[in-house]
Amino acid sequence: MQKLTRIITLSVALTVVSGCSYVGVYKRDIPQGNLVTQEMVSQLQPGMTQEQVTYVMGRPLLEAPFDTREWDYVYRLDKAYAGVEQRRVTLTFDNTGRLMNVAQQGDFSGDLPISTDTSAGPATETTDPITGNATPGQRATTPENAPTPQPVMPTE
């Protein structure tokens, strides 16, 4: 009986710890596509060339494969705990490459929560990943303090 109690207790403990726990999972916002703001769209004027539009909006996420006169800028933000927000701007050009029409879909009234995390990418060996400073006991190698190579003398 005591062995059966231990087995049941161990089974329940493993089940709770493995996947049926009540501990929440960390989620983060996932932005995808072209960042599109109302400020950017308000700078667009009919008659602008494709180069001028590219300067204001950047390259489009989607260019219609059969009609190069239509550009789509799509931004999708999958919020970790609040759902999905999507914005879309469709630009139509005439045959001469001038902007004719600007169509918007989505809510452009609110600001987007944009992460300002500047520590993107892997840390170097001599850099602390948290602070970005040289790790204790080491100097970060820069062109100013890089060691000069010493010539190797042949031994006899």
Explain the overall architecture.
One of its GO terms (biological process) is protein insertion into membrane. It is found in: Cell outer membrane. One of its GO terms (cellular component) is Bam protein complex. This protein starts with a helix and ends in a 51-residue tail after the last strand. It is an alpha+beta fold. The protein has a domain at 27-105: Beta-lactamase Inhibitory Protein, Chain:B, domain 1 (2-Layer Sandwich), CATH 3.30.1450. It has three helices and five strands, in the order αβααββββ.
Short description:
The protein has 156 residues and is an alpha+beta fold. It contains three helices and five strands; from the N terminus they run αβααββββ. Strands 1, 2, 3, 4 and 5 form a five-stranded antiparallel β-sheet that branches.
Topology:
Layout: H1 2-18, E1 30-33, H2 38-42, H3 50-57, E2 62-63, E3 70-79, E4 83-93, E5 99-105
Antiparallel strand pairs: 1-3, 2-3, 3-4, 4-5
Key descriptive features of the protein:
156 residues; alpha+beta; 5-stranded antiparallel beta sheet; BamE-like; lipoprotein; cell outer membrane; BamE
